[in-house]
What does this fold into?
Amino acid sequence: MIRVTRQGTVFSGSNEHLNELRSQFNQRHYLRFPELLEPELLEFLQGRIDRGEFYERVHQDIGPNKELCLTGSAASGALSCLMNDERLFQIIQSITECELPRCFEGRIYRAIPNHGHHDAWHNDVIENRLVGLSINLSREVYTGGVLQIRNRESREMVAEVSNVGAGDAIVFRLARYLEHRITEVDGHAAKTAFAGWFRSQPDWISFVRTQIHTGSKIRKLADSAGCAGVSR
Amino acid sequence: MQTKAKIPQSIGDVKPNPNVISRRLGDEIVLFHLETDRFYELNGSAARFWELLSTEASPNQVCEQMLEEFAVDPRQLAGETKTLIDSLHREDLITIDE
It folds into this structure.
């Protein structure tokens, strides 16, 4: 069991369990982490998301797509902080055999049934992205909104996975020979998820620092200069 | 033998604010305040101070531990710790029971 908590990421399995997960990821190109977010944390985040606002967003450089993206909510910053964890990076590297991630970049999005919200086929192999991840933050069980993965050349579907368990996460492979997409949500319930990529560059702190120039809120409270003469 | 770094008695029980999430990355710790939607960065000894404070140690216990780990004058450490506590409190990153 892998769980992201306020205190940090916890892995409670053995090395054998880790080997099994690695083998599954190799075969399927994805893995499910049940209840990656602890329930108390999920409930807190859902409350924050309820208070936030969504705007319609279209991603550039891929086929037709549309989603609602959350803005002005502490849920985004909280998830960013929670997911940028060295222990989690080590676990992801161990399971997926990718380069050691140094950053996780994600956004909270929502797909409403019958609004054309979906993602077209693309592979995300840009900007030092290593592995994809999506965490289900939805309050209700939705239908549709499925992650599909196919071989880029043959177009043979290699995986199709829904992620409707509260706080569950799907980790999936990014590779030049693969593409993935998210289908439209049908039924009545909306899908809300935190999705993004583990990246090899930049490191997260550098990434967060760049947000200063884009209006985000980071403040440097103290640095080694503030403790002159103190050294390890 | 070094004398102990004593924090002024006027500072009470100091704890991390439960609405603050922290993550260590290398030598630094990033704090995120869930109420103010604001990130903070703690470097070097400030990061270590936060880490020790998170173990429910008192400021004096934290200072004693830091004296073990850092080559620093006890009075200087006490002064810098007081300044850091003031900064953390001003940003609502810690709670102080007076």
About this structure: Confidence is low (pLDDT under 50) at residues 223-232 of chain A. The first strand of chain A starts at residue 2 and ends at 4. The first helix of chain A runs from residue 15 to 28. Chain A touches chain B at residues 6, 8, 44, 48, 73-74, 77-78, 80-82, 84-86, 203-205, 208-209, 211, 216-224, 226-227, 229-232 (CB under 8 Å).
